From TrEMBL:
One of its GO terms (molecular function) is 3-oxoacyl-[acyl-carrier-protein] reductase (NADPH) activity. Its EC number is 1.1.1.100. Keywords: NADP. This is 3-oxoacyl-[acyl-carrier-protein] reductase. PROSITE patterns: ADH_SHORT. The gene is fabG_1.
Length: 254
C-alpha cells in the first residue's frame, strides 16, 4: 500500500462502524492519523481505534451526537490539541428516516438534518482556522439525493443539501485555504445499519434496482466506497473540487 497520506491528520464523523469505519481504516493504512466520532457505541469506536493503532497510526475517539451543538467545537479541539492542524475531513455521520411523508414529524426532520447537514457544516466552519496546507474535505451523500424514493423525504432533502453546500465550500475554501471539497454518492452498501434498519418493502424495491447496476449486479461494499474517498482525500485528487463523484456502480449517474 502506498503511504500517500503519511503523517496527515483526518477527522471522520461516524467512524465507529459501517462505511465510516472502513474509511478510517483505509486512510490509516495509507499513513493518516485518524480521529473518529461515535454517537453511542463506544466499544465499536474503541475497536476501530485499536485497528488504526495496529496499522502504526495515532487514533482518537470523540463522542458526537448529531443533535449536539457543542460537538463540532469539541471534535476540532481534540484534533488540534493532538495534531495542531487538520488535513482531512470526512463528513460521514448520517441519519435516515425510513418514514412516509404522511408520518413525518418535526422531531424526525430535525434529527436527520442536524446529523446530515448541520454537524457537517459547523464542523467545517470550526476547522477553518486550523486547516493544513492542502486540506481535503469529502462529504458522504447518497443516490437518494438524486433518485428519490418512498420513505425518505427528510433523508433525500438532507443529502441533496449536502451536495449543494459541497459546491459552496469548494468555492469559499478553494483559493483561500488551498482546499478541495467533494462529495460521493453511494447506493446501498452492505453495512450492519442497512441490513438492520431497512424495512422489508424498501429492501425488495432496492433488490430489483441492484440487479440493474451497470458495474455489477450487486450491492456495494464498504471497500468500494473507502477506495473512492481515499483518492479524494489524497494529493492525487488535487484538480477535482465541487464535484459529486459516482460511488454506486452506476446505479445513479452524475
Amino acid at each position: 500500500m502506498v503511504k500517500n497520506l503519511q503523517g496527515l491528520s483526518a477527522i471522520i464523523t461516524g467512524g465507529s462502524r459501517g462505511i465510516g469505519a472502513g474509511i478510517a481504516l483505509e486512510l490509516a493504512s495509507r499513513g493518516a492519523n485518524v480521529l473518529i466520532t461515535y454517537q453511542s457505541a463506544s466499544s465499536q469506536a474503541e475497536e476501530v481505534s485499536a485497528k488504526i493503532k495496529a496499522l502504526g497510526c495515532e487514533a482518537l475517539i470523540v463522542q458526537a451526537a448529531g443533535n449536539d451543538k457543542e460537538a463540532p467545537a469539541r471534535i476540532v479541539k481534540a484534533a488540534v490539541e493532538k495534531w495542531s492542524h487538520i488535513d482531512i475531513i470526512i463528513n460521514n455521520a448520517g441519519a435516515g428516516d425510513d418514514c412516509l411523508l404522511k408520518d413525518m414529524t418535526y422531531d424526525l426532520w430535525d434529527k436527520v438534518f442536524n446529523t446530515n447537514v448541520r454537524l457537517a457544516t459547523f464542523l467545517v466552519m470550526e476547522s477553518m482556522p486550523y486547516l493544513g496546507k492542502a486540506p481535503r474535505i469529502v462529504n458522504i451523500s447518497s443516490v437518494m439525493a438524486r433518485m428519490g424514493g418512498a420513505y425518505a423525504t427528510a433523508y433525500c432533502a438532507s443529502k441533496a443539501a449536502l451536495e449543494g453546500v459541497t459546491k459552496v465550500w469548494a468555492t469559499e475554501l478553494g483559493q483561500s485555504h488551498n482546499a478541495t471539497v467533494n462529495c460521493v454518492n453511494p447506493g446501498p452498501v452492505g453495512t450492519d445499519m442497512w441490513l438492520r434498519d431497512t424495512g422489508a418493502d424498501v429492501l425488495a424495491e432496492w433488490d430489483i434496482k441492484m440487479k440493474e447496476t451497470p458495474a455489477a449486479p450487486r450491492i456495494g461494499t464498504v471497500d468500494d466506497i473507502a477506495q473512492i474517498v481515499a483518492f479524494l482525500a489524497s494529493e492525487e485528487s488535487r484538480w477535482s473540487t465541487g464535484s459529486t463523484v459516482n460511488a454506486n456502480g452506476g446505479l445513479c449517474f452524475v
